[in-house]
Amino acid sequence: MTDTRSRVLTLAGFALTAALLFAVAPAVLSDFRLSLLARYLCFAIVAVGIALAWGRGGMLTLGQGLFFGLGGYAMAMHLKLADAGPGAVPDFMLLYGSGGELPWWWEPFRNPLFALAAVLVLPMATAALIGFLVFRRRVRGAYFAILSQALAAAFAILLIGQQATTGGTNGLTNFQGFFGFALADPLNKRMVYFVIAGTLLAVLLITRQLFRSRYGELLVAVRDSEERVRFLGYDPARVKLAAYTLSAGMAGLAGALFVPAVGIISPALIGIVPSIQFVIGAAIGGRASLAGAALGAIAVAWAQTTLSEEFPAAWTYFQAGLFIVVIAFLPGGLASLRQLLTRRRTRTEGTPA
Amino acid sequence: MTVILSQSFTGISIGAVLLLIALGLSLTFGQMGVINMAHGEFIMAGAYTTYVLQQHLTDAGTSLLLALPAAFAVAGALGVLLEWALIRRLYTRPLDTLLVTWGVSLLLQQLARDIFGAPNVQTRAPEWLTGRITLFGGEHPLTLSHARLFILTLALTAVVALTLTLRRTPLGRRIRAVVQHRELAEASGIATARVDRLTFFIGSGLAGVAGVALTLIGPIGPTMGTNIIIDAFLVVVVGGIGRLRGAVIAAFALGVLQAVVEYSTTVSLAKVAVLIAIVAFLQWRPQGISTVRTRSLA
C-alpha cells in the first residue's frame, strides 16, 4: 500500500469516526445508551495509550489502572469539593469520622485549574518517576509487567486502607456538578459525552502523528532491538520513558473524564483486574494498531455490559476464551486478521502449483 | 525484646507462605521463562482439593495429609494440561504467556464459581494444628501457632525436596540442562518437550501444595488466587530468576519487612512500603538476588 493511499484511507477513517461519534451516535442513541458509550470511549482512550506503550514500545503495562485512578481521583476530589462549597468538607468525610477536617493534600483540589492540571500531571509525573527508576536499570519484559501490576494493586490497597480520606472501598461518588454544570441535566451529560469523544479523537490524532514521526520509528527500534539502538548512540531508557509517560497521561485523562460520565471512581475500578481488562480490549482489537486497540476496547466493554447482565457466567467464559485464542493464535489481534488473510492469499498465489 | 521476636516470627510465617507459593513459580517462571498467571488458580485448585477431601473424610487430620499428595497431583495435572494445550506454543513469546494464562485464570475462577459457588468456604483444621506454643511467658509472650509452624515445616521440606530433585536426580539434571542450553540439551538426546512438561508438572504441583497450606490460615474462594499471585511474582522478581536460593531469601526478607512495617503502621501502608523497597532494590540489583543464565525473558 503506497504512503499517500494509506494517508487518504486513514483520513477517511478519522472523518468517518468523527461523523459517527459526533453526528450519528447522539442522534440515534438514547441518553442512557449515549452515557454507556461515553464510558466505553474512556476505555478506548486508555487503549490508545496501551497501543503506544505496549504495541509500539513493547512495554506490557499491566498497571494502567494506577494512572486511570490518579486522573479519576484528582477529578473526583475537585468535584466533591466543588459540591461541598467553599470551606466545607465532602459529605463522606463526616461519615467516616475524620473530624470534619480536610486533609492538607485535598486542599489544592479546590482550585479548578489545579485539578485540571493534576489530571494530567499527576499520572504523568508518577509514570515518569517509575519509568526513570525502572528503565534506567534496564528492568523490562516480564519484570516490568509484574512491577506495573503490583503498583496498581498497591494503589488500590492504599485507597481502601485510608477510608477516612479516600472513601475506602466505596470510592468517591454522588457528584452534583461538573465545573458549574449540573450533572443531573441530560443536556450536560451530552456535553460530557462530546468532550470525551473529542478527547478520543485528539488522542488518536496525536498518537498517529507520533507513530509517523522519527520518534515513532525510534520507539519501534527500541522495542525490536534495544541493544542495537543503544549502540547507535540513543538512550533507549529515555525513548521508553516518553512513551510510558504519555500513555499514563492518556489513562489519567480517561480516568478524569470517566468520573463525570459514570459518576464514580473507586478502588474496584483501578486494581489488578480492571488494569488487565484495559489490556484485553487493546489486545483483542490489535495491540499495535491504534484503531484496532480503540475499537477492541469499545467492543469488549460493550460486550461486557450487554452479555454479562444476561449471562454472567457465560460472559466470563466467552471473554477468557476469546482472549486466549486471540493472544495465542492471532497475536496482532483482530486488526491483523485482514492482513493475515491477504498475505495468505498472496502466498498461495505466489507459490507455483 | 519479645516484641521483636514475635514480629520476626510473624514475618517468617508470612515468608513461609510466600515461599511455598513462589516455589513453583520460581520453577516455571524462573527456570522456564513462562509467566503463569494461572498459578494462583492452581493454588486455588489445591485448596478446593483439600475442601473436597474433607467433605468425604470425617477426620480432618487424615484428609489434610491426604490432601497434600492429592493437591499436588490435581494442580500438577492442570499445569501439564495448560502446558500441552497452550504454553508450548508460546515459549518464544514470554509476555504472551502472561496474557494467555491470565485468560486461563479467568476461566478457572469462573469454573470454581460454577462448581463450588461464589461464597468462600472453609475447612476444619485438625486438632493437632489448632494449638499454640507459648514461649517467654509474661507481658509479651511469644506465641507460635501450630498451623504456622506446620506451614513453615512444609515450606522448608518443599525447598529441600525441590533442591534435591534438581541437583541429585536424573530428571533434575535434565531440567537444568534444558534451562541452561536448550539446543545443546536437545542435541545430547534429551527430550526437551517432555522435560518442559515434567517441570511444569512439578511447578504447578507445588502450587497445589501451597493451596493446602492456605486452607489452614484463611478461607477458600474463587478469587483467592488473584490476591496472592502478585506477591508471589514479586518474590521471584526480587529473588532473581533461576535459583531457588534467591527465592528463599526474598520470601523471608519480604515477609519480615512486611511484618515490621505493619507493626508500626498499617497493612496497606506496609504493602506500599514493601513495593517501594523492591523498586529500590532493583536499582541496586536489577537482576535480583541471584541469577543463572536462562532462556531470555524478552
TrEMBL record, chain A:
One of its GO terms (cellular component) is plasma membrane. Its main location: membrane. It is a multi-pass membrane protein. InterPro entries: ABC_transp_permease, ABC_transptr_urea_perm_UrtC, LivM-like. One of its GO terms (molecular function) is branched-chain amino acid transmembrane transporter activity. It is found in: Cell membrane. It comes from the Bacteria. Keywords: Cell membrane, Membrane, Transmembrane, Transmembrane helix. The chain crosses the membrane at residues 37-55, 62-81, 113-135, 142-161, 167-184, 191-211, 241-266, 278-303, 315-337. PANTHER family: HIGH-AFFINITY BRANCHED-CHAIN AMINO ACID TRANSPORT SYSTEM PERMEASE (PTHR30482), SLR1201 PROTEIN (PTHR30482:SF4). This is Urea ABC transporter permease. It comes from Streptomyces xiamenensis. The lineage of its organism: Bacteria, Bacillati, Actinomycetota, Actinomycetes, Kitasatosporales.
From TrEMBL, chain B:
Keywords: Amino-acid transport, Cell membrane, Membrane, Transmembrane, Transmembrane helix, Transport. The chain crosses the membrane at residues 12-29, 65-87, 147-166, 198-220, 232-257, 269-286. The lineage of its organism: Bacteria, Bacillati, Actinomycetota, Actinomycetes, Kitasatosporales. Belongs to the binding-protein-dependent transport system permease family. LivHM subfamily. It comes from Streptomyces xiamenensis. The keyword Transferase does not apply. GO terms for molecular function: transmembrane transporter activity. InterPro entries: ABC_transp_permease, ABC_UrtB_bac, BCAA_transport_permease. It comes from the Bacteria. It is a multi-pass membrane protein. The keyword Cytoplasm does not apply. This is Abc transporter permease. One of its GO terms (biological process) is amino acid transport. One of its GO terms (cellular component) is plasma membrane. Its main location: membrane. It is found in: Cell membrane.
